[in-house]
Design goal:
The complex is a heterodimer. Chain A has one domain (2-226, 235-507). Chain A is globular. By secondary structure, chain A is mainly alpha-helical. Chain A has helices at 2-5, 7-10, 13-31, 37-44, 53-78, 87-98, 102-126, 128-136, 140-154, 162-176, 201-218, 237-246, 248-263, 269-282, 295-307, 309-312, 314-319, 325-336, 350-375, 378-383, 386-405, 408-426, 431-457, 461-465, 469-501, 503-507; strands at 179-180, 187-188. The longest helix of chain A is centred in the C-terminal third of the chain and has 33 residues, at 469-501. Chain A has 26 helices and 2 strands. Chain B folds into 2 domains: 2-143 and 269-337, D-Maltodextrin-Binding Protein, domain 2 (3-Layer(aba) Sandwich), CATH 3.40.190.150; 145-241, Periplasmic binding protein-like II (D-Maltodextrin-Binding Protein, domain 2), CATH 3.40.190.10. In chain B, helix 2 (13-30) runs antiparallel to helix 10 (281-295) and helix 5 packs across helix 12. Classes of the chains: A mainly alpha, B alpha/beta. At the A-B interface, helix 4, strand 1, helix 18 and helix 23 of A face helix 3, helix 4, strand 7 and helix 8 of B.
Chain lengths: 508, 338
């Protein structure tokens, strides 16, 4: 119960002000496409040079927590995920906004973020030693199977068509191979000078989601964006609370998935959200509602990506091994204050460490409070005229893409992918499997190559990749995931066939 | 004139000599403008939050300081802005820097030795940079490689590692940050001098390589002294790949030379700043003096020490000599590989 002892520290004037400032700033940064949590924390580290250790860690922790949730805001309102972690949120969040339920979607998003986030931090507080041991067990073979598991869900993100999902996923994986091979340094598919550094995930994310959105907004035939203005509700926060808490299945799947993915070093929030979303849909009684504005989709995705925050700090604080790219940047913040990860953090520096962890808990609550209060204004965003919105989104897209690595090439790649996406979206393709393919392609390739190199020195690749408890569990999960997809596809076909033979039942 | 008056007021004794120097060179340059009169950019060829980025931000944090309690204005009161251009082990950022940066002194980059020299030798047709089109300014850090095994490993000395490697050719896996970086060079050197065949596994980052050793994915590893030092209670650090021991961090760990393996300091990861070839000499001299003094600032050293990042401040002349020496050695080492 050592963590209770330092709660007071969080509420000193300076610390609390920093926490509030970090949370509000983080929500805004997170809602800006391109400014991912990783970027936001990296940009802030120099500002913490002059601060005392506790204050600087509180600031970085608050920004980490709130940028993850803030990324959902732009996703829900304008269909552009603020960061890769929010891709899954968009899939049902934006359809909800289009139905005039933007405020409601944001409520679910922040409430489930709080629940996932708090449970995640509690895992960090109570189970750090065993979880740290688990984190170390994930080597190239295990990570290879984790990414293959991710690949098995690509097809079901296709928005209805498995074949189109698979094609988009395959194209995404191909795009991930452009540029230098991450292990062996060979250059591939670099047809143009702009591709020598590969396709950056953020550039692809913004291009694939934002640009089709801009073009659709400008396309006069579909003008209006489909938002039913009269349906603009003033959804009560209390109702949203009750509803979110009643979605036990979505919350559980989201939190558990997010926590597990958080511990695995190198997997990251983008996978947490998507896996949780997919599992929630697969276990749902009526999976056809997903993608059309199902609150469970938002709840699962957002509880997952915030549940990831706490556990991703477990291997960081104990072993100095970050569980997510953002945690990797946070490591710099620790070191600069002379806080070396390891047992010392919880003994010699326990005051700093526990205050930091406590501030993460308080930060989750603040994040929800501020999040809920800004959701009220979301209706103004949906009222913005289309041409103004299109211009604003374009500016954000260019700014966000350029700022990632100060590269004009990234902006060109972003526009190219986006324009391509606009046309293939017209024939039923969706961007999510493409982006997931891009994320997983590199993870799979890197770990396969590293694993093969290690395997060559041991008993060969078959033994290396197909032995060990974690590997076998992951392989079983992959088989289950594929089996379930085939089963539900067949069930769906049968239902459709029945609907054709008995059209009256369908109507009833 | 107002500005320089103001500067004079603000600077204290230690920096005033430096200030005088900067004014004299700046005015003698070409008369019409003082260098620098706008912010200076520093390209870091690695991602934000990595060791190079992290250190680059610390060592340049004093560049614009003119506050009352500060010692002086190292680079004419102009801030240094870090720009990350990561990709392909540094190749994207350095390629861009060598081909696009204007030789004005306003566009600088951080270098990592032996990385960029080894890459320029290993990939002559892809890489557009080499020691001939870049100009060193000053060096801030040197992080030697160390040979590590897991705490639970059967190996207790380099001798035992090498004996195992001799008996089991190609079976001993060694992790390191990437290809043609210091860790890789160290592993190649050890393979060569001990006449063994250890399998080097590029992990994609130093921390990741450390994780492979902690998690038992590889049997051993080559890693940064600073990172290994931080995890020393979970590792056995068997040898330092440098000319002398690290008295500050690991005084009890012998060098490889002490253990009978002729591995010198060629794999030590030197970090510093550089400019493109063609930058005017007086600008280079101004930057070199200012940077060297800035790296030596007590507050910079304090922050670097707190972060466990070993410093080694070297003048421009010393770095020039070091670059040439590395070039010759690495040409020979990598030639043997082909």
């Amino acid at each position: 119960m050592e963590f209770l002892q330092y709660f007071g520290e969080v509420f000193t004037l300076t610390h609390f002000m920093i926490l509030v400032g970090g949370t509000v700033g983080g929500l805004i940064l997170g809602a800006t496409p391109g400014l991912s949590p990783t970027m936001a924390v990296a940009l802030l580290i120099p500002f913490t040079f002059q601060m005392e250790p506790t204050a600087s860690l509180i600031l970085l922790g608050a920004v980490y927590t709130s940028t993850v949730a803030g990324g959902a805001v732009s996703g829900i309102l304008v269909n552009i995920p603020g960061a890769p972690a929010n891709i899954a949120t968009v899939m049902d969040g934006h359809p909800m906004a289009k139905q005039g339920r933007a405020t409601e979607a944001l409520h679910y998003c922040f409430i489930s973020s709080l629940i996932g986030g708090v449970i995640g931090v509690f895992l960090l507080i109570f189970f750090t030693p065993p979880l740290a041991d688990l984190a170390l067990k994930f080597g190239p073979a295990e990570l290879f199977w984790v990414s293959i598991f991710g690949v098995t869900i690509i097809a079901s993100l296709g928005g209805g068509s498995v074949i189109k999902g698979l094609i988009a996923g395959a194209v995404g994986i191909w795009i991930s191979t452009i540029g230098y091979n991450p292990v062996l340094g060979e250059e591939r598919f670099a047809f143009s000078e702009h591709l020598t550094g590969g396709v950056h995930i953020i550039a692809a994310l913004i291009g694939l989601f934002a640009i089709p959105q801009v073009l659709t907004l400008l396309d006069s035939k579909t003008a209006g964006g489909g938002v039913e203005m009269n349906a603009m509700e003033n959804h009560s926060i209390w109702q949203s609370f009750k509803y979110t808490l009643s979605r036990v299945r979505a919350l559980t799947i989201g939190t558990v998935t997010g926590s597990i993915v958080g511990i695995i070093p190198g997997a990251g929030g983008q996978i947490a959200g998507l896996v949780a979303y997919d599992q929630t849909r697969k276990t749902s009684k009526d999976s056809s509602r997903f993608g059309k504005g199902e609150p469970d989709g938002v709840i699962a995705a957002e509880s997952a990506n915030n549940a990831m925050v706490g556990p991703s700090l477990v291997p960081l604080l104990t072993l100095g091994i970050p569980g997510s790219p953002t945690a990797a940047v946070l490591l710099g913040g620790l070191l600069i204050n002379g806080l070396f990860p390891g047992p010392d953090l919880f003994t010699v520096h326990s005051a700093v460490t526990w205050t930091f962890i406590d501030s993460l808990l308080v930060g989750q609550v603040l994040m929800m409070v501020f999040g809920l209060s800004i959701s009220r204004y979301s209706r103004f965003v949906t009222r913005i005229p289309n041409h103004v919105m299109a211009a604003a989104v374009t500016i954000l897209a260019v700014f966000g893409t350029y700022s990632v690595q100060n590269s004009l090439s990234d902006v060109i790649v972003m526009f190219t992918l986006g324009i391509g996406m606009y046309f293939i979206a017209k024939i039923g393709f969706s961007p999510a499997p493409l982006v997931l393919g891009l994320i997983l392609g590199q993870l799979t390739e890197t770990n396969f190559l590293q694993g093969s190199m290690i395997a060559d020195s041991m008993d060969g690749p078959w033994v290396y990749f197909f032995s060990g408890t974690i590997n076998l569990i992951l392989i079983a999960l992959c088989v289950l995931s594929i089996g379930f997809s085939i089963y539900s596809e067949m069930r769906e076909n049968r239902r459709r066939a029945q609907a054709v033979t008995h059209p009256n039942e369908e109507a009833a | 004139m107002m500005r320089s008056l103001l500067k004079y007021k603000l600077s204290t004794t230690l920096a005033s000599s430096l200030m005088l120097f900067s004014l004299s060179t700046a005015t003698s340059a070409d008369g019409h403008s003082e260098f620098p009169d706008r912010p200076i950019s520093l390209t870091v060829a690695y991602g934000a939050g990595g060791a190079t980025d992290f250190q680059a931000r610390i060592v340049t944090m004093m560049s614009a300081k003119t506050d009352k309690d500060d010692k002086g204005v190292y680079l004419g009161g102009q801030p240094i802005v870090v720009i990350n251009k990561p990709g392909a082990g540094g190749q994207v950022g350095w390629n861009r820097f060598a081909t696009k940066a204007k030789p004005t002194g306003y566009e600088l980059a951080a270098y990592n030795i032996p990385h960029f020299i080894a890459q320029s030798i290993a990939f002559p047709d892809k890489v557009k940079y080499n020691i001939d089109n870049l100009e060193p300014i000053a060096n801030w850090g040197a992080d030697p490689a160390v040979f590590i095994v897991n705490k639970d490993s059967e190996f207790n000395s380099m001798k035992e590692v090498i004996e195992y490697a001799k008996a089991n050719p190609g079976k001993l896996t060694v992790s390191g940050a990437g290809l043609y970086v210091g860790h890789h060079i160290a592993a190649l050197q050890l393979n060569k001098v001990a006449e063994v065949d250890m399998k080097y596994v590029p992990a994609g980052g130093g921390v990741k390589a450390l994780q492979f050793v902690l998690g038992g994915q590889t049997m051993a590893g080559v890693n940064n002294l600073s990172d290994a030092y931080r995890s020393r209670d979970k590792l056995k650090i068997l040898g330092v790949m440098d000319l002398q021991r690290s008295e500050e961090f690991l005084p009890d760990v012998p060098t490889l030379m002490e253990q009978g393996y002729d591995v010198d300091d060629s794999s030590v990861n030197f970090r510093g700043i550089m400019a493109p070839k063609g930058t005017p000499d007086e600008v280079l001299e101004f930057l070199a003096k200012g940077s060297e003094a800035m790296f030596g600032d007590g507050r910079v050293i304090g922050k670097m020490k707190a972060g466990g990042s070993p410093m080694r401040v070297m003048s421009r002349a010393d770095v020039q000599a070091m670059w040439k020496k590395r070039q010759t050695y690495l040409e020979g080492l990598l030639q043997d590989l082909k």
